[in-house]
Amino acid sequence: MVTHNENPVIEKDAADLSAPPITSGSALPQLHPKYRADIDGLRAIAVGSVVIFHAFPEWFKGGFIGVDIFFVISGFLISLIIFNNLEHDRFSIVDFYIRRVKRIFPALMTVMVLCAVVGGIILFADEYRQLGKHLLGGSTFISNILFWRESGYFDNSAETKPLLHLWSLAIEEQFYLFWPLLLALVWKRKWGFLRIIGVIALASFVVNLYLIGHDQTAAFYSPFARFWELMVGGALAYINLHRADLNARYKDVQSWLGVIFLAVGFVLLNASRSFPGWWALLPCVGTFLLLSAGPGAWFNRKVLASKPMVWIGLISYPLYLWHWPLLAFAAIIAGETAPQEWRLIAMVAAVALAWITFLFIERPLRHARGTKVVLVLLAVNVIVGAAGAAIYVNGGFPQRAINEKLDYLARADVFEGSRNSDGSCARLNQLSEVSEEVCLSNSAQPEVLFVGDSHVMALHSAVFDRQLALPSIMVAGHACRVYPNLPYEAANVRRWSNNCTEIAKQAIMVGARLPSIQTVVISGAYPRGNLDSPSQYKVNGHTISQREAFMAGYGALIESFIAQGKRVVFVADVPYLKLDPHSCVNRFGTEPTRECAFTQAEHEQIRKSYDAAVAELRQLHPKATVFDPVSLFCKQGKCQAKIDGAYLYNDDQHISLAASKYLLQSMQHDGLLPPTSSK
Known about the structure:
The protein is an alpha/beta fold. The protein is 54% helix and 7% strand. The chain contains 25 helices and 12 strands. Strand 11 and strand 12 form a beta hairpin.
């Protein structure tokens, strides 16, 4: 799932405009506009806000808009350089990309290589495999696409992805694939630049607004929903060069308005806002106004151009590259959000590493003459990408000793396959799936139908992996209450849980259509907290409680299958863990870092309301059988994370492949499922 913790990277671009021109073998040097210290100060605000937000989100909830500030700065500076060189007939697309490589690759390759090395030491195989994919994505500048695709209900926490921050660097590089060519074309044809840029930026902004209402993850990661932010800076670059009359007056007013826009953004924005959307106008307009005000405005001259602000701005790119991996590895080692003192140390280390990187790696290579350094940087980038691909293809190298601490969970996740449709229902049972449905079948004549949400997918995983030869079919939906009689208003900001009522009806249809089905297994995550709180469902225009929805929805589902002559088994949900199993293991020692399982008393208190609802459901529908797995997980006053050395969970609530087999065999032993021979 997408949160605002999912970090944007900040890029320094053509930041050091005082740097000597880069010739890269061309006949004429590239022209750079006059250096503006206030822009480095604006970078300091951007990088400082994002770093503080990531390190201490409880203090500065709106700091994530720093990336939007950088998008506008980047579009402004790059466009100024392109326009300057176009006007003097010195623009070369080859020189443009050579300059980009020298700007970006030195610090980026340094951070990525060290992340790969550290990851090989402390990450479990599944984590290292994911890092390998992200190394490949970072080297090919498609990180935003990868994070977009993997974001979802089962996505691991943003703070455990050391290279998550590369997504916005990818957006910038995708933007610069077409932007120089567009500017060159507009210049050559002598078209009205502001009109053309206005149309394209407006289209991008409309895409942003559309996606916010339909797929917030796409709005966050899609380049087409973000390009308008860089174009805001590009438009200002053109205005400064060719329409200075449009922003020539009231420079101090522009500057203070820009400060106000940014301040309002920092105060009002937080993870609950649908971002970017309309809200992104606050940082983008604020940055536009501060840049437009110019170096002579009081705030720009006295605050932004001050020595401390400029110093932070100079190291902003390597600082951003360093700070997030340090925080991510700290969270991984801690097993949860790292303690404040760890995060503070990480920030101090990030500043020190950024300064060292700037002095000894970034600046020397950025100003190096000739193309040899470019070829070397490109070669290193290819090697990093190839190494990432090798890590991914080899499953994160499970033969590393650290993986023994997490048994098979570190090496493979069969549950990953059992939560996605594979076409088997259409192939074996001639069924057409409804939107967002997960349907899996292993027989043309299934005897058991599994119905529910991702928890039933986990329960079914041993069947999917063929560790239990049970002719069956599963119809489920992620994060779905499978209530066939309770329509609701879809959230429309995620790619799941928008069509649960239809999925429930589809399951009933499958039961009616396939007479071979004798048993229906229903299971789902339990509603947490007070079940008397309002649900998302309405009956006769009145909102009903979660308890009422639970009774009415599951009651209707159960009775529908009983009316078909099926045997119905309602599997009460399993106990939950305090933390993901990955967080319970001491990566540097032999003793567990912490206890992941609840005591039985804690478990009973947590789900007291749910257990009462299940008991009432049993009384109201006596023809259905309720199977409660708690006694299999909780013994001698303690609920367990492992049995016989095998972890029972994939995360803090979805059971593992081992637990799936354990529960299904227990149900067979009780006569609730057809007997089969297991592997």
